[in-house]
Amino acid sequence: MQHRLSAEDRAFQQEMRDFFTNRIPDEARTWHKDGEVDPEALRIAQRAMHDAGLAVPHWPVEWGGKDWTELQRHIWRTEMQATGTPPPLAFNTNMIGPVIATFGSQEQKERFLPPTASLDIWWCQGFSEPDAGSDLASLRTTAVRDGDEYVVNGQKTWTTLGQFADWIFALVRTDPNAPKKQMGISMLLIKMDSPGVTLRPIKLIDGGHEVNEVFFDNVRVPADQLVGEENKGWDYAKFLLGNERVGVAPVGSIKRKLADAKAFAAQTKTAAGTLLDDPLLAARIAELETELMALEVTVMRVAGSSHDGKPDPASSILKLRGSQLQQDVLELITDIAGPASLQWQPIDGVGEWAAESVPTYLNFRKASIYGGSNEVQRSVISGGILGLKG
Predict the structure, then answer these.
(1) Which tens digits make up the pLDDT trace of 8-43?
(2) 3-class secondary structure for the chain?
(3) In 273, 327, 337, 347, which residue has its Cα 20 to 30 A from 242's Cα atom?
């Protein structure tokens, strides 16, 4: 199968390539290292994109969107990933931004959307709880209406980058007597510095601090920070998670990492030359390249099937295959590093890429859990797409 871009699309691709290569400051490209995120690097990159009108092309035009075709959005995303540019913060641009633009009040749109696009507000996600991660509908954090406020009590966990966040969009149970657990859930926008909000770090297996626990102890939230209608939060969460799953098939990043793997293999000496000359390794790389091409085609097909701003249910396939393929490529890099991967700090004879290979591999094991675990995606695909009964 061969894909050819039109002359117009090739010109657009070159425009994006030039922008991400020449207009993003270099210090923004080292935004993720040793399992830690540099928040300032993300702000630098997103503000550069925002100033150029490229931060939120998928939003409504009146709020900064570009009314691009799905192919243009795919090119924009792929060129950004291929240059190592950090993507616009997903919690802002792929998650709460589209939810507010679609379901929020006019006051909420005017108040939140501009600073959300520019990253002047940093959002985090308050969905998962200790006993309600993949089974999100089992969440127990409560919000009780008291006059013009809600009083929130409960706990969220695995709150990614919450240590940098100004606000959290949280799912809370507002009707504990609803006939189904998916009902009676609402979405609230809560300031992280509200009295009663406590954040505790969770140390990860790669040694980094990326996720947190968030506790709510009688936190009072103005009622005008309710998104949409009370008890309709499950609908908004499904809309948000559909967008999240489209964003977790990072084709451009996987391409770049696979190209890195080939370069690392070419510089790793063996008795017969380099690792890149090894036929078994070459076959493994060829298989990954083929699977990556199939994923890229599927991304374009799914994106093109979205209607009226609603993600295609097949976005679950992207979540599943994107996370698997990303992990396979990172495992390949770890295998190329071999015994050098056991040294987590660069020393003489051990390159930086080899020392980072295992922490990076371990960090991205999370990809098959967040955004709805891969087991959940298999259930969605079998029941919701293929129509199979369990």
Answers:
(1) 989 999 999 999 999 999 999 887 776 688 999 999
(2) CCCCCCHHHHHHHHHHHHHHHHCCCHHHCCCEECCEECHHHHHHHHHHHHHCCCCCCCCCHHHCCCCCCHHHHHHHHHHHHHCCCCCCCHHHHHHHHHHHHHHCCHHHHHHHHHHHHHCCCCEEEECCECCECCCHHHCCCEEEEECCEEEEEEEECCCCCHHHCCEEEEEEECCCCCCCCCCCEEEEEEECCCCCEEEEEEECCCCCEEEEEEEEEEEEEEHHHECCCCCCHHHHHHHHHHHHHHCCCCHHHHHHHHHHHHHHHHCCEECCEEHHHCHHHHHHHHHHHHHHHHHHHHHHHHHHCCECCECCCCHHHHHHHHHHHHHHHHHHHHHHHHHHHHCCCCECCECHHHHHHHHHHHHHHHHHCCCCCHHHHHHHHHHHHCCCCC
(3) 327
- For the question of whether the overall pTM of this predicted structure is more than 0.85, the answer is no
pLDDT tens readout for residues 66-112:
999 877 888 898 899 889 899 999 999 999 999 999 999 999 999 99
C-alpha span between 327 and 367 (Å, rounded): 8
Out of 129, 244, 296, 356, pick the active-site residue. 244
Both structure tokens of 376: 């959940």
